[in-house]
Amino acid sequence: MSERTSYEPGVPSWVDLSSPDTEASATFYGGLFGWEVQSAGPVEETGGYGMFTLRGKQVAGIGPIMQEGQPPVWSTYVATDDADAAAARAADAGASVLAEPMDVMDAGRMAVFAHPAAGVLGVWQAGRHTGAELVNEPGALNWNELQTHDVDGAKAFGEAVFGWTPDDQAFGGMTYTLFTVGGQGVAGAMAMPSRVPEGTPAFWLAYFTVEDCDASVAKVEELGGSTFGSPHTLEGVGTFAVVADPHGSTFGVIAGEPPEE
To answer: Sign (positive/negative) of CA torsion 62, 9, 116, 237?
Structure first.
């Protein structure tokens, strides 16, 4: 289903980009995915936050860097029916709460926390804004993946906070963990690849669907971004690559379907 109007608790529902130059980022992602930017409301209320749209549907968010030292990054938010309770469970499971639960006008309620094994994650309790309105088609979110030094720790955290059931599967000669809700894969986790710089903390990758992975990688470079190796093809998954925008925000592009059970 490409168009979405709701998300079950435990399902990643939204991603957004923190950028040091939102206009430059809008140009980059507009050139890559055909996205346009729509303001989320008055700057004094939203802090300059905006919505990336595709064919009039909201597919991701974008906002300026809000504090010194904050890196340019794509962030993942998981749907919840109670942001306060989710943040409390995260803290009980060993996370540091970076943003205490708060209302975002009438759009919804959110919190952000960081865990050594599960990385930085947000939770989103929908109000007027339910999450990505378009998924799993070119230019829209396809998959959310954790890369971590402690997969077992991430499994325990996901079970405690989101009710995720982990399911280890063999993909391309490695073990890949599917996090499932109601028997359906909703996100994934894998051991940190050796090519990632030593000391890199656990992090989430947002993957976006493209029609042609090789062409998209070439477009990333043409627009001033960078790539991390050549595209890879896995049977049952598709052809994918990990890339970065000109500010260094890392994300994935994939031509194919997200992994399923």
So the answer is: negative
